[in-house]
């Protein structure tokens, strides 16, 4: 059964709040649930007023709910150290020192952050997920991460051709030379081919989980920019065969009372009218159902307020993974 | 005299509105002004209710003001075509076809967009800028673009070493061989060294203009995320010796009238209180003066409303470039 749920959307739309509210609904429905946050601002710790780290921990006072926070920066560091160690095995110390600078630079490339984070999320799906019925992520793959999902195909062909060439040259080598099987052994254990196969298998696993055992929701706010970005995200996910199950409009401005008529009330009414237009546009132009509208709150969402948001979220937990 | 002004900030904070209002102030103060927009949503065309393209065009009804809109996507295309043409000169057609796929992929890398856009902005500073007293950009360099400013140093050393090695091998070649000066001629015209020198010179020019003839302002909204991002942007610009002259807080929620007391008024008062906290935090923790607070508007900013925003902006045009 599908059991992973991802809440995507641009920074600031309220993904963490919505994912926390959804995870709470799952736990309240009797599902053992893990919420995985990737927000470097530790907003999940804020929501539950409890500090989380890289290990799943029970959320106090919320039966059936655990949380973990992944620090993307720490993941990038670890990722780079892995690469360095791998290289040290294969080249001399002098080269390693030269290469360190390159790694430093690669660390700063825009893709490094996403790649390291995706690696960690795949590890959650493989390891931590085993102890739970549901795993809720406050992020969804975008841009470069989605492109990684096409890697297995691409990488598979490439590795096959690489091995084929390798075999041919080994055949020639054996025919030409000394009757030892030393070279063939080396090919079977070739660390580079081994790593490529490993990556191929890893992204194949991720693609399968994302396509067959996961649901995606996108969180947006009722403004032009957020609607346009959501439209692009739905298309982009679709191009990678990932279906978006629903849209959640968050931070909807509340209407004033009917008898309010001052400057503030006029401002709010105009603002609400604009937001209704954006929401209508969303429903007309994005082919994904709008599953919830959540009111804007002036205070932080935590404690009882999270329960209120969970009530407004109203995604049928039983029907969706 | 300094004459370039950049308005930076994350998508959605209102950079285009603020830059348009500032450009209007410059033009009204008697400076021949060009506003350069890089927003793919053509918001500058919306603000002035007139369609702009890649060529500077006078804004109707606004004396001394011209506008142009750069399409970053088109710039990436052109950039990639340039690279392709350059490569075709140097390798066989078979290799070009193989390489086309690589270019296709490079096109999608996150850095390509920024690099192509920065190239075009440098061209504006070199060419279009000549006809104006002031040039206002609705964007400021971030991330990878800032890193390009360190390229001249890095590239300079590298090219010097490359040429030195080249000279040495040519010396050996000449000592060893036939008395022709053919190889030396080739080195002087080496297309790769030529292009590296060109890039070195280009980014050197950009660095000089940005450090000596430009002012930077950052636009933010009074919320946690925007304040945190602005703090990082100020630090990042500072690391590259670019001083931020001022912060503009945009989309400040208006207070209700004193005698309003309904649900709407209560919501607005709480919201305004939260925003005041964010603004106080900004002033306490970011070492850059807050030069303007602009009220949130429910309708689109254009026509007379732009004039109102320009009045609220109140940056002294004469004192700043």
TrEMBL record, chains A, B:
A GO molecular-function descriptor: ATP binding
InterPro entries: ArsA/GET3_ATPase-like, ATPase_ArsA/GET3, P-loop_NTPase
Ranges of residues in domain ArsA/GET3 Anion-transporting ATPase-like: 3-303
CDD domains recorded: ArsA
Family recorded in the similarity comment: Belongs to the arsA ATPase family.
Protein name: Arsenical pump-driving ATPase
């Amino acid at each position: 059964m599908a059991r992973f749920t991802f809440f995507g959307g641009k920074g600031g739309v309220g993904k963490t709040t919505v994912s926390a509210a959804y995870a709470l609904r799952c736990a309240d429905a009797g599902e053992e649930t893990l919420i995985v946050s990737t927000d470097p601002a530790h907003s999940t710790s804020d929501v539950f007023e409890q500090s989380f780290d890289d290990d799943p921990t029970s959320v106090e006072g919320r039966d059936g709910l655990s949380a973990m926070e992944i620090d993307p920066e720490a993941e990038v560091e670890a990722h780079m150290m892995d690469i360095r160690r791998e290289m040290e095995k294969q080249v001399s110390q002098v080269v390693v020192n030269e290469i360190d600078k390159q790694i430093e630079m690669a660390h700063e490339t825009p893709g490094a952050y996403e790649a390291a984070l995706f690696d960690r999320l795949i590890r959650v799906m493989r390891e931590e997920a085993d102890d739970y019925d549901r795993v809720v992520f406050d992020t969804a793959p975008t841009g470069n991460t989605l492109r990684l999902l096409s890697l297995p195909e691409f990488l598979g062909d490439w590795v096959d051709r690489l091995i084929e060439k390798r075999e041919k040259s080994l055949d020639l080598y054996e025919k030409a030379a000394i009757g030892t099987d030393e070279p063939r052994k080396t090919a079977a254990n070739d660390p580079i081919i081994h790593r490529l196969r490993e990556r191929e298998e890893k992204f194949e696993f991720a693609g399968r989980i994302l396509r067959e055992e996961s649901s995606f929701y996108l969180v947006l706010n009722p403004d032009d920019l957020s609607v346009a970005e959501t439209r692009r995200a739905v298309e982009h996910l679709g191009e990678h065969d990932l279906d978006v199950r629903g849209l959640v409009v968050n931070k909807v401005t509340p209407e004033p009372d009917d008898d309010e008529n001052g400057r503030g009330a006029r401002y709010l009414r105009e603002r609400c009218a604009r937001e209704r237009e954006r929401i209508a546009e969303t429903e007309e132009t994005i082919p994904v159902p709008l599953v919830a509208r959540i009111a804007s709150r002036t205070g932080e969402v935590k404690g009882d307020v999270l329960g209120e948001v969970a009530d407004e979220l109203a995604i049928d937990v039983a029907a969706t993974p």
